[in-house]
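Structure ticket #2291
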Amino acid sequence: MHRSRSSRRASVGRRGFGVTVSLVILAGLLGACGDGGGSNGSNAGEADGTDADTAGWREVVPGGDCLCSDGSEFSFWVREASREKVVLYLQDGGACFSAETCAPEADLYTTTITDGPPGDGGVFDFADERNPFADHSVVYVPYCTGDVHLGDTTAEYAPDLIVHHEGLVNGTAALDHLASSFPDATDVVVIGESAGSVAAPIYAGLVSDRLPDARITVLADSSGAYPDEPAFNGIISDAWGTATALPPWPESAGPAAAPRSIPGLFVESGRHDPEIVFARHDYAYDEKQEFWFTLLGVPVGDLAARMDANESEIEAAGVNVLTYMAPGQEHTTFSDGTFYTEEVNGQPLVDWVARLIARQPVDDVHCTDCT
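Resolution: structure written out below.
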């Protein structure tokens, strides 16, 4: 959370339902922390263009209930370009769910925001002509809550250890800003990196509620192995207040609803809006994903086989997910230069992503020698 295959293709159908939750109800349910708009009041102003670290980006400080895990201020960053094409980017940064894992000395999660906007690597290299997102606006959501962007609770793990799991509250403020700033968006791509990729499917469904006419794509980078098992499900369902914080989509509500799982988040969102196109990128033997298995006491087994099994589970539930599995033990690629150099079976990742977001035919890509 850190920082057997058939040839399936992306397809787009028609939505069989309208918006099920109004923006007003959503704001109350998700505990939105501020108006998330503009650069007045508690929001920071625009960059003056002279600072290389912030040029082209504007910081938004929503205030209110938005917080980092240590109680410090939360903010997000906006790059304005196309009014029709927008990226919602969910940053990585670990997780915590107990006194042991949340202790600062464990160094398992990001507790506060210390950096400015993202650098210029990977999808953020807007000058690279190969970048399929070069003309997109971006809402960049930093991660500092230890709850994979899905929390809405304050937990006291020890007398001197209080953690504000407000990831969903923070993310909702950024999402509301996206919807109000780009109301005519036709294409929204939700990109999540590591911890952010766990939440990416849910945020796609939340985008759908706000912008029902937009074409929505999910790119989840480096969380494909986390299974539908009690050790993982208990964290997603209980530890961060997620079960009660998420909107009551009829597709996942009711007394018979199963405990939330990480692969199940794709199913919930896909059933909520069957037009969302889901895609995952993983390294077959990702060392950081293996680490979380070990931390939770779950046997790792064959990590690539777990990724394949999760894909099969999601698709058996009726939700298609396209996958690009690369060999090796690395972790994440969308925010660095390997986004442009990675190639598996003759298929460059950057070209695969470009075709995916353009709704051109895309096949699963799976390494042969995955070690």
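Closing remark: The longest strand covers residues 187-193.
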